[in-house]
Structures are given as structure tokens and as C-alpha cells.
Amino acid sequence: MAKIKGAIVVNKERCKGCRLCVVACPAKVIAMSKQVNSKGYNYAQMANEDACVGCASCGIVCPDGCISVYKVKVD
Amino acid sequence: MTIEDIIKPENLVYKKPDIMNDRPMHYCPGCSHGVVHKLIAEVLEEMDIVEDTIGITPVGCAVFAYNYLDIDWEEAAHGRAPAMAVAIKRLRPNKLVFTYQGDGDLAAIGTAETIHACNRGDSITIIFINNGIYGMTGGQMAPTTLEGMKTATCPYGRNTRLNGYPLKITNLLKELDGTCYVTRQSVHTAAAVRKAKKAIRKAFENNINQKGVSVVEIVSTCNSGWKLSPEKANEWMEENMFPAYPLGDLKDTTGDNQAK
Amino acid sequence: MSEEIKLMKGNEAIAHAAIRCGCDGYFGYPITPQSEVLETLMEIEPWKTTGMNVLQAESEIAAINMVYGGAGTGKKVMTSSSSPGVSLKQEGVSYLAGAELPALIVNVMRGGPGLGTIQPSQADYFQTVKGGGHGDYRLIALAPASVQEMADFVGLAFDLAFKYRNPAIILADGVIGQMMEKVVLPPFKPRRTDEEIEKECPWAAIGKKKNRERNVITSLELDPAVMEERNNHLQRKYKTIEENEVRYEEVQCEDAEYLLVAFGSSARICQKAVELARAQGIKVGLLRPITLWPFPTKAIAKYADQVKSMLSVELNAGQMVEDIRLAVNGKVKVEHFGRLGGIVYTPDEIIEAMKAKIM
User: What predicted TM-score, i.e. pTM, was given to this entire model?
Assistant: First the structure.
């Protein structure tokens, strides 16, 4: 059965750590980093890579356009 | 399959629109403005109309929207954007002319300009960010501030005897013959963002097709002004703002509402 | 075809001249004594011929912001009003100046302060040449003294506005706006095409093309150093205008021992006063500033070496007299004579004032 695999790339310098992507993700893929970026924000990152289905909910709700979403069909 | 196998250009399904440039936006973390900016950018790109678009920024937090979207802009005096938009549309009828305004800009100081632009019926689009507060000046009471809601100028909560009632201006605008499409949306969930994007697309198409004024109100958060985390602000908005400002289309006379 | 001489009001001449000089848009609001500008345009319906837009706005504030919006797209746009309405416009005027947009504002002055009177006055001199709105800015200010000049100055004001990317104002008064005189209207000049505007106004917000940066019409800048430089740039521009655009008229000044200084309708009355005074053997001349800003400071300073004294004749409580005194810098006596409340002086009254105040 075909399976959908997704991944995200976060522009961590642009991220302001608002966590709205964490809330929006239905698969609980995203968590905030322990590190901070140059502005002092904890940034979003994939914490549970395998769970990502590339639904793009995180990117869609991101106010700062920090998230690129990739999706591929795996046979 | 590794992450590297997935992250390839051919697998890209979502990214920041090209006309939203790399300049960091000054908005607070979690601010709704960024999402709406992004939607405008996406719709303009999808309609392939960037070269024929003139945006008008307000006075308020979105005054610097012109720094973030690579389109031509004019920066309005407080509340005057609709008057400017009417003139621009009359002088350049083939352009997509839109205003981007907050609640103080549109529903307080600019009420006359808003009402008359909407009544005159020139095909402009008004994107109206309603977060019930003045963000840029530090969280003062807006015309749309809810009853009992605390702001810097109603620190004990909006008292309707002292301050009057929350102004549901979009409800007024739908009554005017010049408006063709009046809708109230939000951008707090992915599903809501998708709907808001459709609304903006429709409003911009009405603009190009000379159908009249389209008003897209986005019920938004101002988590700094509300003194809540972005997440809590969304919850507060659902509980408090949505009952006062219910989402959905208030008016659509463009004739294609059956298609939905 | 020979020139066609017409008889019309100053306000009507403004409207006809606007259409003929290729104006793209007029945005106004009715107010006495200038309503004939909008009325004439609505009667002519120039959108059917030249394509010029005419719109009655909901307020003077909306009208000036329509001008601001239209000017930002490179179009040749204007508004007109009278004193209380022009007060309302000051916000937009300041924005026009700050964003360096060419536009034309016409003020057919009436008496103030407040609602004042609908009768003529020249009490908006300070408002016009000293700012009016907020911030350090200048308007190119033309003061017509005849219906012919009402017609001629529309094109001139637009030319100067576009040359310097600065709002220009025609400061007339109820006398010039309402009186009928013969006038030769300027020839028809086609409105500029969108391509011509794009070439002449590369700064205009008309939709961002791929080969250029976005155009942003704004007066906002939060970085103090950048804002100071923006202001310095404006001041340099104003200096250039002061050096190049001073306009004035001299009447019988060659041998004058006394000098009247007056603009607009007052200058017309002073011209008769000069004639009558000379018949009495008084050697008096008249200097009429045509540009109130830039002010003919140098010309007036020159006469301080020639005449015994000067009288500023204005339909106000004494406004331009301050600029004359600055120009003269104490060299000769400078006095003011004015009437208020909509009363207009006669030439004889001016001669009496001369005798009483400066002789």
C-alpha cells in the first residue's frame, strides 16, 4: 500500500518560536528546539520525523513563512 | 527512505510565497498579520497579477506591510486608505487595488472613508484585520474591543456606558449596495487559513472583474495586546471573539456562490 | 483659429483649465465660494472627452486623500476647496509633501477663523506659506490676481509640481473665484498615456514590474538618521525652488518712493490706488508677489534701498507683512493695512492708509 512520507525544513533564523505550528500539526511532529537562534527564540524543528505526512498544516499557519514542506509517495 | 530523500525540490509542496521577501517581519511571534500577508502573496502569485497590483497600507501594526511583500504600495494616512483606493481604481481601473486595514484604522478614524467607499461601489478590496485592540500604539481600546475586554484605555474592561458597544462594522458594510462580497474569516487553524485564502481569492477576482467592493474581515489575535501566548490567544479568540464576530459569508451578490 | 475670448468666473476658469491641461482627476467637496469648480466639471463631464475623472468625495479629508492616492500612481490630480475645507485637507497635504508627490490644491479663500464667513479674505497666507499641516515642508504657492491667471496657473502649478515632485497650491480668494472677467483658455493638451507616466514617473506605484524594485509611496521612516537625511533632501529641494521659481510683478516701481506690496485681489485694488496716488503726485509703486512661496525676498530687499517705506495691503490682520519685514530686515518702515470679515478696501482707503501709516 502506498504511504505518504513528509518532511519539513524550518528557516530557524526567521522563526520566532510562536509554537503555532506545534499546535497545528496533527501528527505531533514538531517541537521547539532547546537552542535559541540569533534573536533568542527557540525555533521549531522536527522531533518526530517518521510521523510527518507532509500535510503542510504547520507551514500554512506559520505567521512568518518559516516552514517549507516536502511530501513523497512511498510504494 | 531518509529525510534527505524527501527534501528534494521535486517533492516541495509548501513554501513561503516568492513575493514575500526574506526581510524578517516586525510582528510579534504568532501575530495573525503574517499569515494574512502570506495569503495575499499566495493569491497574487496564483492569479499572476503581481505586476498589476497596488496595495495600500494603513497606520497601525501593518504600516510596514510594504517592507515584506514585493508589490507596489502606497502608505495611507490613518483611516484614509479606502478613499485612496477609490481614486486609484478610478484612475487605473485595470489594476487590482486593495487596502489592508486594522480595526482602529477602518472602524474608528476611517469610518467615513470606509462607509463611502463601500457605498460608492468601486471594485476595490478591503482586507480588514479585526483583533479588537490597537496593537502598534500599545494595546488601547479599539471600536471592536469586546464588552468587558481589558485594554490600556479601558483597564477595567470595556464599559458600554462609558465606551459604547463593540462596532460590528462588517455587518453595516454588507447593507450597502456598493459591496458585492462581505465575509468574515479567521486564520487560527490550517482549515481556517484555507478558507480565508479562498475568500481573498474571490475578493481579488471581484476586484479584477469590476464587481464592486469586497470586504474580507479576518478575526485575528493580538497576543501581545491581549497578554496571552499565541496558542492561548487563539483559544481566547474562539471563545470570545467568534461569538461576537461569527465567521462566514455575510453577503455575496457575485452570482457564483452556488458553485461552492 | 484666433484666440477665443470667453467671459467666466475664476472658479469656472480653474475647471476649464484643468480639463485643458491634461488633468487626470479632480476630487472635491462643495464649499462656498469655490463650488463652481466641481459644478463646472460635472456639467462638462470631461470623462466623456479627455477621460479626466471627476469625483465628489464625502469630505475634504477624503478628497485630499484621493488626490494623494492618485498622485502616488503618477497621475495629474487636483482638488479645490475654501478655507475651512483646506484646514481639513492639511493632513493629506503634509503626506503629499512628505511622500514628495506632485498634486494641485486650489484654495479660494474666505474669512475665518472657524466657520467665519463666505466673503473674501486672504487670511490663509500663513497656513499656505508657513506649513499648514505638520512637519517641515513647503508648498509651491501661486496667487492669481485675475480670472486669466486662474486659468494660466493651473497648468503652471502642475508643471512645477511635477518638476519638483512637490504639491503646489493656487491661493485665490472669493473675489477672484467669483468675479467674471474675460479669459483666453489654454489650448488643449492631451492627458499623458500610461506609458508616458511610467517613463516620467519611475517612482509611481503602478504595479511592480519584474525588472525593478517595488515602488513604495510613503513618508514614514523610523530610523532617525535616514529620516533626517530625508528631511535634508526636502530642504535642499526647497532651496532649489527658492532659487529658481520666484515670480512677481512690478507696477511703476522704477521711480517709487513708497512701495505697496499686495497679492491676489488686493493687488488689483492696489494697482488702481497707485494710479490715483500718482495723480496726486505721490510716487508709489506696487510689487505683487505671484509666488507667495518662494517669496520674492530679494526683490523686496532691493527696494529697501530705494523707497522710504512700504505698506503691505492684505485682506487679513497682517500676515505677509511679516515676510516683507524679514526681507527688509529693518532697513525701512514696513506697515500693514487690512480689512477683515469679508470687507474689501477701496483704492481711496488704501491711499488714506498709506498717508496715515507710512508717509
Answer: 0.96
